[in-house]
Specification:
Low-confidence stretches: none
Distance between the termini: 56 Å
Strand order of the largest sheet: 1-2-3-4-5-6-7-8-9-10-11-12
Shape: globular
Number of strands: 12
Helix content: under 10%
Radius of gyration: 20 Å
Mean pLDDT: 90
């Protein structure tokens, strides 16, 4: 267990497996990392709003001396409490690599009832941090007889200044949404905004006739 500024972190078990000979190739390869029973209790400190990030926020730490390759990460039974809000995560898994400033996350899966999601992320952690992310999601809630549970697909493409957004709602309605999110998270940016255009295809809803 770790306590830092009144915030606590506890892990019931941690298992890792790696081959030290992988260092000879200039890449640190972690074959597997499994966390079980993660408990996080976090309370934000009072104070002013977070300052904008620098124009190259990762320049001080990247690139690392060698590339990193995490072949399999799994997290089971986590409880995250942030400012009194509790989120349970039953399972999360991913594969990740970091080579210079190139971050690649694949085979991402998340189960946090009632949400299930899977996806990937590619990012260049230099400059304005360009990224491309794709996520499929499913929300396991009952909307009534004849209505499918909510599900959709989300794609984000851009940087910490502006993200292009494309979302397709597959059920219970079919809605195509396109637009952008102005984040302005980097120093010098001012404000933020969201602009979306929605297209509804011709459809019928069982049970609402």
């Amino acid at each position: 267990q770790l306590t830092l500024d009144g915030n606590s972190f506890r892990i019931a078990s941690l298992e890792a497996r790696w081959n030290p000979f992988s260092l000879l190739s200039g890449t640190f390869v972690l074959d597997s990392l499994h966390l079980q029973g993660l408990l996080v209790d976090w309370t934000s400190a009072p104070g002013p709003a977070t300052a904008p990030l620098g124009t190259d926020p990762f320049a001080a730490v990247l690139p690392l001396p060698m590339a990193l390759n995490l072949m399999a990460f799994t997290l089971d039974q986590a409880t995250l409490t942030v400012d009194g809000q509790v989120q349970q995560i039953e399972h999360m898994a991913l594969t990740a690599s970091l080579d210079g400033t190139a971050l690649n996350i694949t085979d991402l899966s998340l189960q946090a009832a009632p949400l299930r999601a899977s996806g990937s992320l590619q990012a260049d952690l230099s400059g304005t941090v360009s990224l491309l992310s794709a996520l499929d999601w499913h929300y396991a809630i009952d909307l009534g007889e004849g209505l499918a549970q909510p599900a959709g697909s989300l794609t984000l493409n851009g940087n910490l200044g502006t993200l292009g957004l494309a979302h397709v709602l597959h059920s219970p309605l079919q809605v195509d949404s396109q637009g952008s999110i102005v984040l302005n998270l980097l120093r010098g940016g001012t404000g933020g905004s969201l602009g979306l255009t929605h297209t509804f295809s011709s459809q019928s809803l069982a049970g609402l006739a």
